[in-house]
Write a structure and sequence with these properties.
The complex is a heterodimer of chains A (486) and B (224). Chain A has 486 residues and is α+β, with helices and mostly antiparallel strands. Chain A is built from 14 helices and 13 strands. Chain A starts with a helix and ends with a helix. By secondary structure, chain B is α/β, with parallel strands linked by helices. Chain B has a single domain, classed as P-loop containing nucleotide triphosphate hydrolases (Rossmann fold), CATH 3.40.50.300. In chain B, strand 7, helix 6 and strand 8 form a beta-alpha-beta unit. Classes of the chains: A alpha+beta (486), B alpha/beta (224). Chains A and B meet through helix 1, helix 11, helix 12 and helix 14 of A and helix 2 and helix 3 of B. The structure holds adenosine-5'-triphosphate and magnesium ion. Magnesium ion (MG) binds next to helix 1 of chain B.
């Protein structure tokens, strides 16, 4: 028989004999450590997650045109210079119009945008299929896809009906020959010159009348009566160039030019008022859980081709910055740009901060409660162990074991439990945090190597603290009383 | 090594008659020298165990001092006192005193084990042989008879070769033959090894092995 074997037997025997109790103590430390390690891991990781998360639930800054100005690619790029490149997560431009799908008698909102930027500003967009990669492709919101029954690969014939052209007329009707053109332009001395013309089958001018009553009677005022001047226009296709297609009336150059201008403008308006129809291939169906599901998305280039306008309604920005910094950026943009103003999406930026604050308080509270429960459980268990071993402890003391030795033995047992529980907690806690992160935030977290020693240290400290009272009890056992026997 | 009690007394709180407390042991002075075996007898409840515990460092007297050689026993801190008891004092308690998770031999070697001293395996073997429990080394205390357990406790006290041996009714569970065996072993231990031995007993036989006999009644040592 060796010394070591005997000592081992003593410990294992006493542990085994009380294995159910030890298991309970170990389990409570382990569970406590698991919850704590999990919470702390999530807590450390969450601000990062939350930031990304909140930004992904819509932009935190909007760029809009100032009153009377237009926002376009150029002015947007200019405005974005106010934000450092590494802070700008993404900037998605949007141009909203209504498009018709005449084959289904349906009409729905459409957005021209930049799909690369959308993936940055709205990473939560979930696309069945793919984002459009080239011209002639569209991304269709789930709601629309369900209504009109399209799938990735389907073709959609979409029509843009410019505002101003009668929406109740079909595109064919508005192309009927004989339609009248009417327009106006500034003439001599700022007076307005009005024209109206009729077009023939070939869209050439059939008749023309001019109202120049604001012009000097001896000069420009002569234009409406001058058959020779007006006659030049008949049978010509628009638009016209003065001094090439038609000559100016001598002494009334400005008024002549105004007539040509007015006709050209009226033509342009008429042409742009023509509905545009194009076939698109559906590449993907968009699910967001939000109103985006009621939209059709196409590239800005396609949108420009449909509407004939280089114009944006809004740009949604996702900027990685605190509220104060965001405000500074917004101010700078609004001040420096002639046509663009910036607005913060304040609700999101603010709630990000307050949610984090509440989360901190919650984690703190739960941590406290878990610590307390763990300590109560371990302490109770150890207390029971001490009273079970009362006689044995008394005997050992009678045989010469000092209070220090008794203390060391129980503390050792507690620390050992803490060590096991800590390892268990670090591993399970990380798994727990991972599960929460994946399920709630949809992203995984990396294992912090510091978590293991931290969890072990904390749970050893908790276990040791829980043993204080039981140890006090054990030390207080009077060998003289125990020795008097049963 | 000798043990010397200087008017030690133990007072407990218990309502008796008019007072709030009573003396389990009245102030008493006595000395047991090395090489001497002293026997204490007395009726049940007379304070024998209380006195023995005070002398052996297990129970602090409420009055007086216990000296071992020149050391004031209860002025030592817990560590030093525990160590001293473990190294120099052997106690055979009145009650059952086996740790059930250990074998008989492990129980016997435990005091040395607690301090990592060399295990007195040879001494243990010899005493077990002498007291007739040699075959029981690997048995579990739970399997043993009362008398066997008692002898185990005696061997445990003796195996450490303590300078002071205290035995509280060591022959209570023993037959006459074993009683004689134990008592003569104690006497031999005192005389031959020059140790101080203090035995509490009801056994009239014990008196003949004693160098000094004390009798107690109501916490008081009677003059003899
Ligand atoms: N811890 C204690 N608290 C209060 N009273 C005690 C305590 N220990 C012993 N006593 C009392 O002191 C008296 C002496 O007890 P002690 O155990 O010394 O008797 P004893 O002579 O050994 O008796 P026995 O022969 O039955 O073992 C008894 O009346 C007992 O009730
Ligand atoms: Mg007694």
């Amino acid at each position: 028989m060796t010394k070591r074997r005997m000592f081992l037997r003593m410990i294992t025997a006493s542990l085994l004999r009380r294995r159910s109790r030890m298991l309970i103590a170990l389990l409570s430390i382990g569970i406590g450590a698991t919850i704590l390690a999990g919470l702390v891991t999530i807590y450390v990781d969450v601000p990062r997650q939350m930031g990304a998360q909140f930004r992904s639930y819509g932009a935190n800054m909007l760029l809009l045109p100032k009153d009377g100005e237009t926002l376009n690619g150029e002015s947007l790029a200019e405005a974005l210079k106010a934000i450092p490149e590494d802070a700008l997560v993404g900037a998605a431009p949007y141009r909203y119009v209504r498009l018709d799908m005449t084959t289904r008698q349906q009409s729905f909102p459409a957005a021209g945008t930049d799909f690369d930027e959308i993936t940055k500003t709205s990473p939560y967009f979930s696309v069945e299929g793919e984002y459009p990669g080239e011209s002639g492709q569209v991304l269709v919101g789930k709601e629309i896809a369900d209504t009109v029954g399209v799938k990735p690969g389907s073709t959609m014939k979409l029509t843009y009906q410019p505002s101003g052209s009668a929406s109740d007329k079909t595109p064919e009707e508005s192309r009927v020959p004989g339609a009248a053109l009417s327009g106006k332009a500034e003439g001599f001395g700022g007076g307005i010159v009005y024209v109206s013309a009729e077009l023939d089958e070939e869209m050439k001018i059939a008749s023309l009348s001019v109202d120049a009553s604001t012009q000097t009677p001896e000069y420009g005022g002569q234009v409406p009566e001058n058959e020779a001047f007006l006659g030049q226009f008949i049978g010509k296709a628009l638009p016209l160039t003065l001094n090439e297609d038609v000559d100016a009336l001598t002494g009334a150059t400005v008024t002549s030019s105004a007539v040509v201008d007015a006709l050209n403008k009226a033509t342009e308006a008429a042409v742009s008022a023509q509905p545009k129809t194009q076939n698109f291939t559906v590449t993907g169906i968009l699910t967001t859980g939000g109103e985006e599901e009621g939209y059709v998305f196409l590239s800005l280039r396609d949108m420009e081709a449909m509407t004939g306008e280089d114009k944006l309604d809004v740009a949604e920005l996702s900027v990685s910055a605190g509220v104060d910094q965001l405000e500074a950026y917004a101010e700078a943009i609004t001040e420096n740009s002639g046509s663009v103003r910036a607005r913060l999406v304040k609700r999101v930026a603010r709630s990000e901060a307050s949610v984090l604050e509440k989360l901190t308080a919650l984690v703190f509270l739960v941590t406290l409660v878990v610590l307390l429960l763990t300590m109560i459980c371990v302490s109770t268990t150890m207390m029971a162990v001490v009273s079970e071993r009362r006689r044995e402890i008394g005997l050992r003391k009678a045989l010469g074991a000092s209070d220090g030795a008794i203390r060391a033995e129980f503390l050792g047992e507690g620390l050992f439990l803490g060590l096991l529980g800590g390892v268990m907690g670090a591993v399970l806690g990380f798994a727990f945090a991972q599960a929460v992160s994946v399920n709630v935030f949809g992203s995984s977290i990396t294992f912090q190597p510091l978590l293991l020693p931290a969890a072990i240290l904390v749970s050893m400290a908790i276990a040791a603290a829980s043993c204080l009272l039981p140890i006090k009890r054990a030390v207080a056992i009077d060998p003289a009383i125990v020795l008097k026997g049963e | 090594m000798a043990v010397k009690a200087e008017s030690i007394a133990k007072r407990y709180f218990r309502k008796t008659g008019g007072a709030n407390y009573f003396y389990a042991v009245q102030p008493v002075s006595l000395e047991i020298a090395a090489g001497e075996i002293a026997v204490l007898t007395g009726r049940s409840g007379s304070g024998k165990t209380t006195l023995l515990h005070m002398l052996s460092g297990l129970l602090k007297p409420t009055e007086g001092k216990v000296r071992i050689d020149e050391t004031d026993l209860y002025s030592l801190d817990d560590r030093a006192l525990s160590r001293l008891r473990s190294e120099r004092i052997g106690v055979v308690p009145q009650g059952r005193s086996a740790i059930d998770t250990l074998t008989v031999l492990e129980n016997i070697l435990l005091p040395a084990k607690l301090y990592g001293r060399p295990l007195p395996v040879e001494g243990a073997r010899q005493w077990m042989e002498r007291l007739g429990i040699a075959p029981l080394g690997d048995a579990r205390p739970a399997e043993l008879s009362g008398g066997e357990l008692r002898r185990m406790a005696i061997v445990r006290a003796l195996a450490q070769s303590p300078d002071l041996l205290f035995a509280d009714e060591p022959t209570g569970d023993l037959d006459d033959e074993n009683t004689r065996l134990v008592l003569s072993a104690f006497q031999a231990y005192a005389h031959e090894q020059k140790k101080a031995v203090f035995v509490v007993t009801h056994e009239n036989d014990a008196l003949q092995y004693a160098d000094t006999v004390y009798q107690m009644d109501g916490g008081r040592i009677l003059d003899r």
